[in-house]
Write a structure and sequence with these properties.
294 residues; alpha+beta; six-stranded mixed sheet; five-stranded antiparallel sheet; rod-shaped
Length: 294
Protein backbone atom coordinates (compact mmCIF):
# COMPACT_ATOMS: atom_id res chain seq x y z
CA UNK A 1 0.00 0.00 0.00
CA UNK A 2 2.79 2.39 0.89
CA UNK A 3 4.60 1.63 -2.33
CA UNK A 4 1.45 2.34 -4.33
CA UNK A 5 0.94 5.64 -2.52
CA UNK A 6 4.49 6.65 -3.16
CA UNK A 7 4.15 5.72 -6.85
CA UNK A 8 0.89 7.71 -7.06
CA UNK A 9 2.47 10.73 -5.43
CA UNK A 10 5.45 10.46 -7.71
CA UNK A 11 3.22 10.35 -10.81
CA UNK A 12 1.27 13.39 -9.60
CA UNK A 13 4.51 15.28 -9.04
CA UNK A 14 5.81 14.36 -12.46
CA UNK A 15 2.50 15.39 -14.00
CA UNK A 16 2.53 18.70 -12.15
CA UNK A 17 6.11 19.41 -13.18
CA UNK A 18 5.30 18.48 -16.78
CA UNK A 19 2.30 20.81 -16.76
CA UNK A 20 4.38 23.61 -15.27
CA UNK A 21 7.03 23.07 -17.92
CA UNK A 22 4.43 23.23 -20.68
CA UNK A 23 2.96 26.43 -19.26
CA UNK A 24 6.40 28.06 -19.10
CA UNK A 25 7.31 26.94 -22.62
CA UNK A 26 3.98 28.06 -24.01
CA UNK A 27 4.11 31.41 -22.23
CA UNK A 28 7.60 32.38 -23.28
CA UNK A 29 7.54 30.58 -26.60
CA UNK A 30 4.26 32.19 -27.63
CA UNK A 31 5.42 35.58 -26.44
CA UNK A 32 8.53 35.31 -28.57
CA UNK A 33 6.39 34.33 -31.55
CA UNK A 34 4.20 37.36 -31.04
CA UNK A 35 7.24 39.59 -30.73
CA UNK A 36 8.58 38.25 -34.01
CA UNK A 37 5.32 38.95 -35.83
CA UNK A 38 4.59 42.16 -33.91
CA UNK A 39 6.79 44.06 -36.31
CA UNK A 40 3.92 43.71 -38.76
CA UNK A 41 3.35 46.09 -41.63
CA UNK A 42 3.04 49.85 -41.63
CA UNK A 43 -0.09 51.51 -42.99
CA UNK A 44 -0.25 55.24 -43.74
CA UNK A 45 -3.66 56.88 -43.72
CA UNK A 46 -5.11 60.32 -44.33
CA UNK A 47 -7.38 62.21 -41.97
CA UNK A 48 -11.10 61.68 -42.77
CA UNK A 49 -10.35 58.75 -45.09
CA UNK A 50 -10.38 54.93 -44.59
CA UNK A 51 -7.85 52.14 -44.21
CA UNK A 52 -8.12 48.36 -44.47
CA UNK A 53 -6.87 45.59 -42.17
CA UNK A 54 -6.80 42.37 -44.26
CA UNK A 55 -6.98 38.87 -42.72
CA UNK A 56 -7.21 35.30 -43.98
CA UNK A 57 -8.62 32.27 -42.12
CA UNK A 58 -7.43 28.72 -42.91
CA UNK A 59 -9.72 25.87 -44.02
CA UNK A 60 -13.46 25.68 -43.49
CA UNK A 61 -13.40 25.92 -39.73
CA UNK A 62 -15.56 28.26 -37.72
CA UNK A 63 -13.67 31.22 -36.35
CA UNK A 64 -14.03 34.68 -34.85
CA UNK A 65 -12.08 37.86 -35.64
CA UNK A 66 -11.12 40.57 -33.18
CA UNK A 67 -9.55 43.93 -33.93
CA UNK A 68 -7.59 45.36 -31.00
CA UNK A 69 -5.91 48.72 -30.53
CA UNK A 70 -2.52 48.68 -28.76
CA UNK A 71 -3.03 44.98 -27.90
CA UNK A 72 -5.65 45.63 -25.19
CA UNK A 73 -8.47 47.84 -26.46
CA UNK A 74 -10.94 45.66 -28.38
CA UNK A 75 -12.64 47.58 -31.18
CA UNK A 76 -14.75 44.89 -32.84
CA UNK A 77 -15.56 41.16 -32.58
CA UNK A 78 -16.97 39.39 -35.62
CA UNK A 79 -18.35 35.90 -36.26
CA UNK A 80 -19.05 34.93 -39.87
CA UNK A 81 -22.59 33.64 -39.00
CA UNK A 82 -22.84 36.74 -39.08
CA UNK A 83 -22.52 38.46 -35.74
CA UNK A 84 -20.68 41.68 -35.06
CA UNK A 85 -20.10 43.63 -31.90
CA UNK A 86 -18.57 47.11 -32.22
CA UNK A 87 -17.37 49.17 -29.29
CA UNK A 88 -19.58 52.19 -28.67
CA UNK A 89 -16.81 54.67 -29.43
CA UNK A 90 -16.31 53.19 -32.93
CA UNK A 91 -19.92 52.70 -34.03
CA UNK A 92 -20.46 54.10 -37.50
CA UNK A 93 -16.73 53.92 -38.22
CA UNK A 94 -16.12 50.16 -38.60
CA UNK A 95 -17.21 47.79 -41.37
CA UNK A 96 -16.14 44.18 -41.91
CA UNK A 97 -16.21 41.56 -44.65
CA UNK A 98 -15.03 38.02 -45.21
CA UNK A 99 -11.36 39.02 -45.45
CA UNK A 100 -11.04 42.66 -44.34
CA UNK A 101 -11.89 45.14 -41.61
CA UNK A 102 -12.28 48.80 -42.57
CA UNK A 103 -11.70 51.68 -40.19
CA UNK A 104 -13.35 54.83 -41.56
CA UNK A 105 -13.24 58.57 -40.83
CA UNK A 106 -9.69 58.48 -39.57
CA UNK A 107 -8.38 61.02 -37.09
CA UNK A 108 -4.88 61.74 -35.85
CA UNK A 109 -5.64 59.95 -32.56
CA UNK A 110 -6.14 56.66 -34.47
CA UNK A 111 -2.40 56.30 -34.96
CA UNK A 112 -0.96 53.31 -33.11
CA UNK A 113 -0.51 49.52 -33.13
CA UNK A 114 -3.45 47.36 -34.29
CA UNK A 115 -3.84 43.62 -33.89
CA UNK A 116 -6.12 41.34 -35.90
CA UNK A 117 -6.75 38.12 -33.98
CA UNK A 118 -8.28 35.03 -35.61
CA UNK A 119 -9.48 32.39 -33.15
CA UNK A 120 -10.75 29.01 -34.43
CA UNK A 121 -13.82 27.57 -32.70
CA UNK A 122 -14.26 24.20 -34.47
CA UNK A 123 -12.22 21.32 -35.85
CA UNK A 124 -8.81 20.39 -34.55
CA UNK A 125 -7.20 22.66 -32.01
CA UNK A 126 -5.31 25.53 -33.56
CA UNK A 127 -3.70 28.39 -31.69
CA UNK A 128 -4.94 31.94 -32.42
CA UNK A 129 -3.37 33.76 -35.33
CA UNK A 130 -2.19 37.35 -34.93
CA UNK A 131 -1.45 39.98 -37.54
CA UNK A 132 -0.03 43.36 -36.55
CA UNK A 133 -0.35 46.71 -38.29
CA UNK A 134 1.34 49.99 -37.41
CA UNK A 135 -1.08 52.73 -38.46
CA UNK A 136 0.20 56.27 -39.04
CA UNK A 137 -2.44 58.91 -39.72
CA UNK A 138 -1.45 62.21 -41.33
CA UNK A 139 -3.29 65.38 -42.16
CA UNK A 140 -2.73 66.30 -45.83
CA UNK A 141 -0.73 69.44 -46.52
CA UNK A 142 -2.25 72.58 -47.99
CA UNK A 143 -0.82 74.72 -50.79
CA UNK A 144 2.11 76.65 -49.33
CA UNK A 145 2.81 80.37 -49.62
CA UNK A 146 6.21 82.03 -50.20
CA UNK A 147 7.45 85.24 -48.61
CA UNK A 148 10.61 86.95 -49.92
CA UNK A 149 12.83 89.52 -48.21
CA UNK A 150 15.18 91.37 -50.54
CA UNK A 151 18.37 92.88 -49.12
CA UNK A 152 20.30 93.94 -52.17
CA UNK A 153 21.72 90.83 -53.82
CA UNK A 154 20.89 88.74 -50.74
CA UNK A 155 17.42 87.20 -50.69
CA UNK A 156 15.73 85.32 -47.86
CA UNK A 157 12.87 82.99 -48.86
CA UNK A 158 10.49 81.28 -46.45
CA UNK A 159 7.67 78.80 -47.12
CA UNK A 160 4.65 77.95 -44.99
CA UNK A 161 1.78 75.46 -45.33
CA UNK A 162 -1.17 76.26 -43.06
CA UNK A 163 -2.32 72.63 -42.81
CA UNK A 164 -0.60 69.26 -42.48
CA UNK A 165 1.30 67.02 -40.04
CA UNK A 166 5.02 66.23 -40.23
CA UNK A 167 5.44 68.69 -43.10
CA UNK A 168 8.77 68.89 -44.92
CA UNK A 169 9.76 71.57 -47.46
CA UNK A 170 11.90 71.67 -50.58
CA UNK A 171 12.76 74.36 -53.15
CA UNK A 172 13.32 74.08 -56.88
CA UNK A 173 14.14 76.45 -59.71
CA UNK A 174 12.08 77.02 -62.83
CA UNK A 175 12.65 75.57 -65.29
CA UNK A 176 13.86 72.50 -63.34
CA UNK A 177 17.56 71.92 -63.75
CA UNK A 178 17.23 68.14 -63.50
CA UNK A 179 19.93 67.91 -60.85
CA UNK A 180 19.52 67.11 -57.17
CA UNK A 181 22.03 69.82 -56.33
CA UNK A 182 19.47 72.38 -57.53
CA UNK A 183 16.96 71.29 -54.87
CA UNK A 184 17.19 73.11 -51.54
CA UNK A 185 15.73 71.51 -48.42
CA UNK A 186 14.23 73.37 -45.52
CA UNK A 187 11.42 75.78 -44.74
CA UNK A 188 13.66 78.83 -45.30
CA UNK A 189 16.68 79.42 -47.56
CA UNK A 190 19.11 82.31 -48.05
CA UNK A 191 20.33 83.06 -51.56
CA UNK A 192 22.98 85.33 -53.04
CA UNK A 193 21.92 86.48 -56.48
CA UNK A 194 23.63 88.51 -59.19
CA UNK A 195 22.62 89.70 -62.63
CA UNK A 196 24.13 86.62 -64.27
CA UNK A 197 22.19 84.08 -62.19
CA UNK A 198 20.95 81.25 -64.48
CA UNK A 199 17.51 81.21 -62.84
CA UNK A 200 15.72 83.53 -60.47
CA UNK A 201 12.32 81.80 -60.35
CA UNK A 202 11.66 79.47 -57.40
CA UNK A 203 8.84 77.24 -56.20
CA UNK A 204 8.33 75.61 -52.82
CA UNK A 205 6.84 72.16 -52.27
CA UNK A 206 5.30 71.05 -48.97
CA UNK A 207 4.97 67.30 -48.50
CA UNK A 208 4.43 64.51 -45.98
CA UNK A 209 4.05 60.73 -46.43
CA UNK A 210 0.47 61.00 -47.77
CA UNK A 211 0.35 64.26 -49.74
CA UNK A 212 2.28 67.05 -51.46
CA UNK A 213 1.43 70.52 -52.74
CA UNK A 214 3.44 73.13 -54.67
CA UNK A 215 3.29 76.89 -54.27
CA UNK A 216 2.97 79.52 -56.96
CA UNK A 217 6.34 80.55 -58.41
CA UNK A 218 8.12 83.68 -57.26
CA UNK A 219 10.47 85.61 -59.57
CA UNK A 220 13.39 87.22 -57.73
CA UNK A 221 13.94 89.75 -60.54
CA UNK A 222 11.87 92.05 -58.36
CA UNK A 223 14.78 92.13 -55.91
CA UNK A 224 17.09 93.49 -58.63
CA UNK A 225 14.55 96.21 -59.45
CA UNK A 226 14.17 97.10 -55.81
CA UNK A 227 17.97 97.16 -55.44
CA UNK A 228 18.29 99.62 -58.34
CA UNK A 229 15.61 101.81 -56.83
CA UNK A 230 17.30 101.67 -53.46
CA UNK A 231 20.66 102.76 -54.94
CA UNK A 232 19.05 105.82 -56.57
CA UNK A 233 17.27 106.90 -53.42
CA UNK A 234 20.32 108.48 -51.64
CA UNK A 235 21.39 110.38 -54.76
CA UNK A 236 17.84 111.55 -55.37
CA UNK A 237 17.48 112.64 -51.77
CA UNK A 238 20.80 114.55 -51.87
CA UNK A 239 19.90 116.30 -55.13
CA UNK A 240 16.47 117.22 -53.83
CA UNK A 241 17.94 118.57 -50.61
CA UNK A 242 20.50 120.66 -52.54
CA UNK A 243 17.81 122.12 -54.79
CA UNK A 244 15.53 122.92 -51.88
CA UNK A 245 18.42 124.55 -50.01
CA UNK A 246 19.34 126.64 -53.05
CA UNK A 247 15.74 127.76 -53.55
CA UNK A 248 15.50 128.73 -49.90
CA UNK A 249 18.70 130.81 -50.18
CA UNK A 250 17.40 132.59 -53.31
CA UNK A 251 14.07 133.28 -51.64
CA UNK A 252 15.86 134.59 -48.57
CA UNK A 253 18.10 136.91 -50.61
CA UNK A 254 15.15 138.13 -52.64
CA UNK A 255 13.20 138.83 -49.49
CA UNK A 256 16.14 140.71 -47.96
CA UNK A 257 16.51 142.76 -51.12
CA UNK A 258 12.83 143.65 -51.12
CA UNK A 259 12.97 144.59 -47.45
CA UNK A 260 16.01 146.84 -48.07
CA UNK A 261 14.34 148.52 -50.99
CA UNK A 262 11.17 149.08 -48.99
CA UNK A 263 13.11 150.67 -46.14
CA UNK A 264 14.86 153.10 -48.54
CA UNK A 265 11.56 154.22 -50.04
CA UNK A 266 10.05 154.67 -46.59
CA UNK A 267 12.92 156.87 -45.44
CA UNK A 268 12.56 159.12 -48.51
CA UNK A 269 8.85 159.52 -47.87
CA UNK A 270 9.19 160.39 -44.20
CA UNK A 271 12.00 163.01 -44.62
CA UNK A 272 10.54 166.70 -44.64
CA UNK A 273 11.00 168.76 -47.82
CA UNK A 274 12.89 172.06 -47.17
CA UNK A 275 11.69 175.03 -49.37
CA UNK A 276 14.42 177.31 -50.63
CA UNK A 277 14.11 180.93 -49.41
CA UNK A 278 14.66 183.70 -51.96
CA UNK A 279 17.91 185.67 -51.55
CA UNK A 280 17.81 188.85 -49.41
CA UNK A 281 17.75 192.02 -51.53
CA UNK A 282 18.21 195.65 -50.48
CA UNK A 283 15.49 197.91 -51.80
CA UNK A 284 16.78 200.48 -54.27
CA UNK A 285 16.09 204.23 -53.85
CA UNK A 286 15.39 206.27 -56.85
CA UNK A 287 17.89 209.27 -56.99
CA UNK A 288 15.29 211.57 -58.37
CA UNK A 289 13.04 210.80 -55.53
CA UNK A 290 15.85 211.47 -53.09
CA UNK A 291 16.60 214.83 -54.64
CA UNK A 292 13.08 215.77 -54.43
CA UNK A 293 13.02 215.04 -50.81
CA UNK A 294 16.04 217.08 -50.19
Amino acid sequence: MTTQCQAFRMSRRIYAEAMLFCIIVCRYGCSEGVAETATGSTIKGRVRESITFPFSAEGNQSYSVDLLFNNTFKIVTWYPQPFIHVREKYKGRVSIGSDSIWLNKLSLSDSGLYQVKIEYTSGSFKPPEYTYFHLQVFEPVSKPDITAECLGSNVSLSCFSSRGTEVAYSWETLPPCGNDSCVHLGQAIDLHLHSLSPSTTYTCTAHNPVSRATSDSVDLEMCFLQGSQVRWVPALCATSAFLVFGVLILLYKRKKHQQSKSETIQVEVDEPVMEEEPPFTVPSIDPVYVSRLC
